[in-house]
Design goal:
With 418 residues, the chain is an all-beta fold. The chain has four domains: 95 residues, Cadherins (Immunoglobulin-like), CATH 2.60.40; 99 residues, Immunoglobulins (Immunoglobulin-like); 107 residues, Cadherins (Immunoglobulin-like, Sandwich); 96 residues, Immunoglobulin-like, CATH 2.60.40. Strands 20, 23, 24, 27 and 28 form a five-stranded mixed β-sheet that branches. Strands 30-35-34-32-33 form a five-stranded mixed β-sheet, with no helix packed on it. The termini are far apart. It comes from Flavobacterium columnare. InterPro entries: T9SS_type_B (IPR026341). This is Gliding motility-associated C-terminal domain-containing protein. It holds the Pfam family CHU_C.
Amino acid sequence: IVEVKNVIDAIDDTKVTVASGGSTPNVTLNDKLNGSNVTIGAAAGQVSLTGVNVPAGLTLNADGTITVGATTPSGTYQVEYQICENGANPANCDTAIAIVEVKNPIVLGGPDKELIVSGTTGTVSIYSNDTFNGKPLLSTIGTGVGQVTVTTTGLPQGMILNSNGTITVDNTVDNNTYTFTYTVCENGALVPNCVTQTVTIEVLAKVDANDDAFVTTNGGSGSVVGNVLVNDAINNLSQGSATISNVVLTQSTFAQPVITVPSKSPVPYLNTATGEVIVPIGTPAGTYSFTYNACLVIKPGICDTATVTVTVHPSNNEEVVVYNHMTPNGDGDNDVFFIDGVDKFPNNSVEVYNRWGVLVYEAKGYNNNDRAFRGISSGRVTIKQLEELPEGTYYYMFKYENTSGVTKEKAGYLYINR
């Protein structure tokens, strides 16, 4: 009797690390049959491979590799397998252990730092550069095995971490820099698999200064025509939330009239202590504009600019205002005899006399522009036409027909200084 006994040796494998969804090398690569490396197959001289104890989530394949399921939690698993010599009688088998470490990586890019305006959802998702097992973190958040759970620590009051990773900051949150952490943990991992990241949020308060338009009349006792803060806002709150206690006002440009008015005439201005727009007594009729800045008290560098437009109509009582002082020196200021509101009464006439009663200028349809007295004679008797009149006191007569068809007249002294 001849006994043929081929020595079969299944050798335990060293630990192999693999992520879920991956595979290990062939577990029989170090196994021997009669001193030679085994070959898995059905022929004589080859071996068959069977799993003795294969944990759930792992699959021992016919080629000797072990596949880790896509949702297999992180942990260390032992796969017991058996190899048997084909055709041996009696059976010639041996078992071994393959150790598989499933390690699903959590990668949190960062640290994250975001700027956001109070009262908005202004950040990008803090998960945008995070992954779990190579997949975007946002797609793996859940409660099931193979998913991850996110928890926060130190999230400031008034902030909400939304499910998509963006952060909502309530409009009550003060302008400041805040930090909190979030921790991502793999669900069902046999050993804890968690990673923590720090997020820094700089909250910038915001101011919105909106343009204003006011209408009033000249003459009288002057007036407050409105307040620029009525439609201004901070922190994306409703209009009117900007007040003199939380913003600082400055008038950044001097009020400029659309039409020419006499030099040194009063113009509308901003009372920066209250936000009120003031139209002084005797402001010539016309449209004026100026700009102002509103800056946050808590962060002076955060400002916004708006334009104020003020339309001043002639007083209903006076209808027109005559400015009886002119300096016709060509500097663009006060060069003409200015009658405020004359454009509303085109049916008019102007006459100017010198101190001897000689008519030195006359015009119909006076309009302060192409028909305007500039201190130059229009010619009459001893005064040459286009002759520059000397400094001194003159007398004017202005006649006009008002909107009711009534002819009115204004007369008085006119002073020329050069």
